[in-house]
Design goal:
With 765 residues, the chain is mainly beta.
Amino acid sequence: MMRQSAWRQMTGPEMWMGLFALAVTLSLTMAEHVVQRPALQTSPVLHRHKREWLWNNLYVEEERPTNKQYYIGKLKSTKSGDRTHYVIKGEGANTIFKVDEKGHIYVTERLDREEKSKYLLSAKLFDTSNILVEKVEEFVILVTDINDNDPVFTKSFNASIKERSKSGTKVIEVTATDADDPTTANGELAYTLLEGGDFFNIDNTTGIITTKYENLDRETQSSYVVVVQAQDLRGLKQGGTATTSVTIAVSDINDNIATFTKSSYVFSVKEDMKRGQRIDTIVLEDRDEIQNKDPIFSIEPPSDTFEMERSQIKDGNLMLKQGLDYETKSSYTFFVQVRENHLQSPVDNKDNPVIKAQVTIQVLDVDEQPEFSQNIYNFNVIEEIMVNNIGVVSARDPDKANKAIRYSIEDKDSPIGINPITGQLFTVRKLDRELVANHMFQVKAKEEPNGLESFVNVNILVIDINDNKPELSIEEIFVCENDMAGTVIGTISATDKDYNLPAFSFTLVKPNGNFSVVDNNDNTSNIVLKHGGFSLEDSRDYVIEIGISDGGRPPMSSITTLPIKVCRCDNKRIHTQCKAAQLKMGVGVYTLIPILCILTILIIVILIAMRKRHQKDALVTLGKSEIHEQLVTYDEEGGGEMDTNGYDVSILTSARNDGSMSMRQGPSLYAMVKKPPTACKGDMAVMIEVKKDEADHDRDGIPYDTLHIYGYEGPESLAGSLSSLDSSSTGSSLDYDFLNDWGPRFRTLAELYGVDGSEGSDSLY
């Protein structure tokens, strides 16, 4: 930043002081330039070359106005004359810097040292014929600095310091920059505090801020804002300045003891509150921040019923450690004390802190659920027996009323029952450990008559007895044609559903000349050949009966029939061809009984179904040779063959209308047809002839013959069917003479079906 106005305003002593500083700066710069000036190149010839260029160091002041070019120096050479001229090249040559024929150098532009502090150029001397007279010589033009830039703080500053820090503790280092030459007073800065000097100091040269006293207290003031000034010219009044604000936060330490807000507390608690629940929170007052809050609670005297826990925000939670019982004790009184770890001494609030408070707990009475004597009940029951007294489940009413308790089991299918008054458990049915080894259920206890209820789990472990027969467990057993005597052809084992560890023993039920059973004493046995010489060509089947005992109390045994195949095997006893043995695995009596029962039931059901179907076919089906004959009400003795009034022939007449015997809605055909008071023999004959003719031409129609007394004899009767379904009025080859042999009751039918009148006793015609 240009500071020409400030430069012009300096007069009197200030001007002289500034000029003195400038002179000192120029002298230092020139000396540095002389020291740092590169040495002249030496010639390989070992003699000193006489220098012909003569000039002084050239300097130009920055920010000098250039209304017109101004002179800064002259190039000199011992060879220069009236017939020579100078030429310069390099940085700014012939633009910023110009030279005339006599070597005078001029500046044509305003320069800024902060942009470029020096310019490297070279000079040549030519004659009028542009012949180089003096070899090239390099020179430097230095731009001298003026105080034209103010200091600048390039960033913001924030810091923190613990409260109660010692005097002189470093807080932060504040630095500013100045674009002016740092080797001169123009670029040298001095730091001062404009605000915050009551609590902090700052180093004039380095800008380090430190604490002034030890009385920083976060609870009194948690942060400070310090204003720092940086000034160039080493802090002289004429120097440029810059300011910045520094925020200093005071961090907390644990220098305040936590205290109770009051000296006594009263809490009301229901007696049914669960253990481990929070009764209430005792709030602490602590001026320190929560991370430095470190309270420790204790109860005096020590209590088995209550305890103190620290909450997330480090207050005290009063917790219920054990259950309360209003009927036993209705109130409690104790003291709660608080202390802190890592507390800085002396504390700020050392005057009368409340670190001990009295607590009173008032227990409130509530109607409580029945309480069981145990949290869970476990009983053992031997399987396959009825037990009247498994054990007792007991509960009581904890209230003063002490109401009666009634017990029940919610699971209606439970094999266990309970006495509703005494809580005594018993078996409803026998238990089978092999089906269910452990019975779990809940017993409900309810206050009489309609009070509260509670539940408890009951576990019944079924104790095993030896009530299951062992079962043979085998793989494929075969004998090879090339097996020799003593060969083990297979190993058998057994399984048992009972829980007790078995000690199986295996024996042959019947002596066998081919095989023997050798017990391995590890619940297995080997089947061993007594001799060799078996052959596939032998048609015999080999079967052995093995008896198994489980060694229990009482011991259980079983007999199993084991078939043994004969095979042709290779050298490794791997069979390649076998003759199947008859499968005669033994089946126990208890297995056969259900199978026989099921087969018997199936046979009975099939027979009943066949009988019903036969009856249905005989009574309804039209494809059978037998047709149901509809008998009307008539005395068993009858009125003789001429008595035609004993049965109703109206049904025969009705068949002409629809030709069916299906059931219809409305009155029956017997009710619809009015019976004639008398029956004429001629009318009856005509009616029967008509019906016969209809039956001959309509084979699908149901015959409507009506007999007064005739027993249904079935399809095996020698008389056959009396239906007219298969009868014919003409062309029939059937001989009806046998009707005369049946007696007088069938004489009329014999006459109707073409029997000669001479052969019958009477005729309708």
